[in-house]
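Thread title: Can someone regenerate the structure for this chain?

I was given the following input by a collaborator and told the matching structure tokens would be attached. They weren't. Posting the sequence so someone can regenerate them.
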Amino acid sequence: MANLPDQHSTSLVNITRRGGILLVKPVGPSIGQREAPLIKNEVEPYFNELGDSLEHLVLDMSSTTFMSSMGLGMCLTFRKMSSEAKADSILFGLSKELHGLMSMMKIEKFYKIAKDQKHLDKLLK
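Best answer:
Regenerated them for you:
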């Protein structure tokens, strides 16, 4: 098994691993049909490598303003993978619009929502 770097960035996503925390931050303002599978392919090896040592998945959406159904599906896939590792799933940095969309699609029920950095730090303890 290849050892992945603790920090990895592409034009679409920044991935940071710190202990049992996996921080995934999509870069573009929009996650659609083209971006979602590419981001998923970058992140998936980290789930595989961390396995049961994963404690928290943090999906930092502070750079994202729009998400298609493919993007929402990607969020659900990440939630499922972290759940299989018995890890928490946390959404962070949601815009009002994105939070509304996640709420309408009932996706926010699968994640803990961190309102700000202080709240996120508390959830990660």
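Strands lie at 7-9, 13-18, 21-26, 30-31, 56-60, 66-67, 88-92, 112-114.
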